[in-house]
Amino acid sequence: MFERIVIATRNEGKRKELEEILRDVLDLPVTVLTAADVDLPEVVEDGVTFAANAELKARSAAAHTGLPAIADDSGLAVDVLGGAPGIFSARWSGRHGDDVANYELLLAQLADVPDEHRQAAFCCAAVFIDPNEGPAPEAVVAEGRMTGRLGREPIGEHGFGYDPIFHPDGHDITAAQLSAGEKNAISHRGKALRSLAQLLAARSAGS
User: Fold this and answer.
1) Which residues are annotated as a binding site?
2) Which residues sit opposite 147 in a β-bridge?
């Protein structure tokens, strides 16, 4: 199917996770390159959904490298906020990537919301683009969710983003207290990437 693929991120954790998932699902070795390996340009994420932003990044990476590309976009959707912060999760406080400021603002906004109404979900869309399919290759899209509820204070040292205030369903601890392996097994990103890998395996078998 392919021996090399680029993932539109500089996150080494994502690289390792994707390599393991592709190896397990496709049953073949795949070399995963990141944005740091191939110097991908920055992409303006002006889509209005996770899937749209992921596709923008995947198409840019595929066009820039000529290699099959995968990108994902994710965020936190809070029920009582109508799905916000959503695609604005990384810059909810007004400063992109300031995790502490983001979750502190969110906790302040939810201060008066009782525990039984603090449901939320991490959402992820993963998109695959193969530039070898022609000038307008089809986007293969898979999505994943991790449901849970929001606590009232940050707990835990692992993970990133809103993990310290998110309690996954079925767990008494936060996502920031889970090990990387435990989190990947239930996470929105892990689910989306495993589903995407299965779609790619089905495409490969049918070609």
Assistant:
1) 9-14, 73-74, 160-163, 183, 188-189
2) 121
Residue type at position 171 = H
Residues forming the annotated binding site for Mg(2+)?
73
Between β-strands 119-129 and 69-78, what pairing exists: parallel, antiparallel or unpaired?
antiparallel
Reported as a single tens digit per residue, the pLDDT across 91-121 is 999 988 899 999 999 999 999 999 999 999 9
List, by residue number, the catalytic residues. 73
Architecture of domain 4-206: Alpha-Beta Complex (3.90)
Distance between CA atoms of residues 52 and 58, nearest Å:
10
Domain definitions of the chain by residue range: 4-206
Distance CA 189, CA 140 (A): 15
Q: How far apart are CA 86 and CA 113, in angstroms?
A: 19
pTM score of the predicted model: 0.91
Whose structure tokens read 């606590």? 151
Q: What is the pLDDT of residue 86?
A: 97
Q: What are phi and psi of 118, to 5 degrees?
A: -105, 30
- What would the pLDDT profile of 18-50 be if each residue is shown by its tens digit? 777 777 776 667 788 888 889 888 899 999 999
What does the alpha-carbon distance between residue 205 and residue 207 come to, in Å, rounded to a whole number? 6
Sort residue 7 into left (φ over 0), alpha (ψ -120 to 50) or beta.
Answer: beta
Q: Which two tokens mark 73?
A: 């976009």
